[in-house]
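Lab notebook, design round three. We kept the backbone fixed and only want residue identities now. Task for the bench partner: fill in a sequence for the structure below.
Input structure tokens:
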């Protein structure tokens, strides 16, 4: 989906192709099966429970992380001490590549959102695999490119002046990588608290915006989920 000017976001949201939007990130963000199998052969599987910190911002790491099962929260803490949710890491996704390659610290907090299984791949073994297998190397470059694009999307969303614009943009962004198809639209697996963190606003203010969208027939609010309604199911 192409970016649109902030003033046109409302119209774009009403007319966007939900099917295409849900496939954009989920199809492209995971490693190919071949690459995943190659990494599994050299990695060590670790189990994490709800709320356990897998990595902390500023932590030195020597392993890339491939999520096998579960879900991980990726967030940062603002100078005021508030958590800002950046995204969720879903099964098949790999994280920590830039830190491992550049031998720098991890740039965010990575916390297990429920039971999860994570494959830890040591830097030495990862570099050896890349040297031996050009297909895996290209696949990892593709993942890094997607991460860079997503970073620019996040920065653009944060730069919007009104809360309404930020909520619209954040819903679109979340729909790309954390949603499922339902009969009347696209269900985003996100709580209003998570959405508030992602938009850097209070839960009360975000709830007010969501209620307005629901009154217009654009979304349906549920327990820890928000459905983006298809145009045919929305009220005039």
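Proposed sequence:
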């Amino acid at each position: 989906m192409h970016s649109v000017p902030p003033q046109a976001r409302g119209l774009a949201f009403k007319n966007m192709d939900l099917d295409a939007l849900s496939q954009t990130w989920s199809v492209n963000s995971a490693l190919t099966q071949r690459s995943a199998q190659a990494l599994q052969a050299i990695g060590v599987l670790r189990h994490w429970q709800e709320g356990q910190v897998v990595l902390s911002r500023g932590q030195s790491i020597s392993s890339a992380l491939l999520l096998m099962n579960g879900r991980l929260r990726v967030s940062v803490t603002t100078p005021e001490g508030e958590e800002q949710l950046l995204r969720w890491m879903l099964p098949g996704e790999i994280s920590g590549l830039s830190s491992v390659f550049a031998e720098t610290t991890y740039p965010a907090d990575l916390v297990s959102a429920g039971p999860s299984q994570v494959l830890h791949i040591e830097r030495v073994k990862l570099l050896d695999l890349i040297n031996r297998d050009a297909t895996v190397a290209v696949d990892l470059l593709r993942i890094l490119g997607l991460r860079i694009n997503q970073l620019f999307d996040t920065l653009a969303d944060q730069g919007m002046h009104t809360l309404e614009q930020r909520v619209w943009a954040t819903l679109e962004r979340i729909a790309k990588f954390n949603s499922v198809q339902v009969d009347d639209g696209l269900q985003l697996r996100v709580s209003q608290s998570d959405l508030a963190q992602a938009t850097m606003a209070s839960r009360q203010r975000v709830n007010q915006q969501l209620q307005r969208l629901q009154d217009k027939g654009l979304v349906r609010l549920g327990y820890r989920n928000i459905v983006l309604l298809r145009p045919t199911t929305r009220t005039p």
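Keep this in mind before ordering anything: Confidence is low (pLDDT under 50) at residues 1-16, 18-27.
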